[in-house]
Amino acid sequence: MLAPDVVEKPAAEQQPLIAVIAGEESGDQLGGNLIAALRRHYPNARFAGIGGSRMQQQGFESWYDMRELSLFGFAEVVRHLPRLLKLRKELVTRLIAEKPLVVIGIDAPDFNLGVEHRVKQAGLRTVHYVSPSIWAWREKRADKIGASANRVLCLFPMEPPIYAHHGIDARFVGHPLADRFPLVSDRIPARRALQLPLDVPVLAVLPGSRHSELERLAGPFLDAARRVAAALPGLRIVIPAANSRALATLKTLLARGPHDEMMPILLDGRAHDAMLAADVVMLASGTATLEAMLAKRPMVVGYRVSPISYRIARMLKMLKTDVYALPNILARACGLGKDAVLVPELMQDDCTGAKLAEATLTLFRDSERRGAIVAAFEQLHEALRGNLHGHAGDHAAAAIVELLDTSKSLSPSGRGLG
Fold first, then answer.
1. Residue 153 bridge partners (DSSP)
2. Domain 11-174+387-410 matches domain 180-385 at the CATH topology level
3. 64-74: b (≥16 Cβ within 10 Å) or e
4. How far are the Cα atoms of 133, 174, 197, 332, 383 from residue 158, in angstroms, in the given order?
5. Domain coordinates in residue numbering, the chain
6. Is the pLDDT of residue 2 over 50?
7. What's the burial of 389, exposed, middle or buried (CB within 10 Å: 0-12/13-18/19+)?
8. Within 10 A of 5 (CB to CB), how many other CB atoms are there?
9. Sign (positive or negative) of CA dihedral 282, 284, 288, 291
């Protein structure tokens, strides 16, 4: 029997549920760090939803295989739409039934915003972690995001002011990648780690991580690498494979190609080492461009999407920017010039071996330009850190805790909505 001054809490308060939904590997990594930080505030909490191995290492219970959400491009999503809609309906039903303290959608906006909107209408609190690229794709989407999320957690400092213009609560929590790279990088330790000579030119080649990306990009990227090798005596080429499937694909493609002087070093992972060791990086557009920027390495960016996806985007006039690579977008947003182009971009039909090689050779041959790019990248790194101290995951957790505490104090029952 309990002592008179001890009040037994309901089971839901003893072990509150925090729901997290991540749709791909980058979201899984963010989710793992976030769960670890939230546990310091809610040590008895149960974490469940959709996530991968990093989240599961933190004791997360994944109700579905995260790979079911890892799709890319219009054509791929349309093909799997019935299955995705069924999964989303089941997930929403379960979330409403289990009444978590908060539902946190990490990235994957096409899936997560729909889930968040439905559960928010049912009275649950929602957070969207990683703002969609409203500065590049239709700013009016901010209203839709605000209808889905009680709070948006932003990785880039220029995002909260855009949301504020629409009356939406958004917080800059810092970019987790900015925590992983020093402000001034040193290529010597990375070259030693990869057993590369210290006095030769090095090119890192990253043609994407998804199978669909490799199908479209590996050919022109490897062709460009051969052209650069032919023009730069002594060049070493390093190709880090993003995962085991990418490694197998790249091995097959290299085996089919000519066995000439290029002979790149194929790595299982270790993308950061490859970037840090390089003088120049040739890579696919995406998060890797931000990593190369934080490594302070001049780069050439190329990309192709499926012709259907490209035609739809152009037809609907979905893009509101004439640059695609994150370093270029950040340079303009952070005041380095409204027309700044730090990184050459070769998109769609321009993404050919010849054009990639020409842009890459230009960087190798212009040391003054490389130095200016490195200085600009250091400025952008500082902007991504902002005035925040500590790690991005801690700031994200603090913003969520603040939201929950505020909601709790405003609730008539004093217990919040969960």
1. 129, 171
2. yes
3. eebeebbbbbb
4. 11, 11, 40, 10, 10
5. 11-174+387-410, 180-385
6. no
7. exposed
8. 5
9. positive
Range list of H helices, 232-306: 244-256, 271-277, 287-294
Residue 94: CB atoms within 10 A of its CB come to: 14
* Closest to 303 in 3D by CA, of 380, 209, 369, 229: 209
Choose among 130, 133, 177: nearest CA to 151.
Answer: 130
CATH of 11-174+387-410, one of 2.60.40.420, 1.10.3470.10, 3.40.50.2000, 3.10.310.10: 3.40.50.2000
Query: Domain 180-385 classified CATH 3.40.1790.10?
Result: no
178-218 tens-digit pLDDT: 888 988 889 999 999 999 999 999 999 999 888 888 888 98
pLDDT digits 0-9 by tens, 339-385: 778 999 998 889 999 999 999 999 999 999 999 999 999 999 988 88
Q: What letters, b where the CB count within 10 A reaches 16 and e where it falls short, cover 117-156?
A: bbbbeeebbbbbbbbbbbbbeeeebbebbbebbbbbbbbb
Q: Residues 148, 169: contact at Cβ < 8 Å?
A: no
Crossing angle (nearest 10°) for helices 25-41 and 392-410: 60
DSSP string, 66-78: GGGG---SHHHHH
Which residues, other chains included, contact 258 with Cβ-Cβ below 8 Å and sequence gap of 6+? Answer: 226
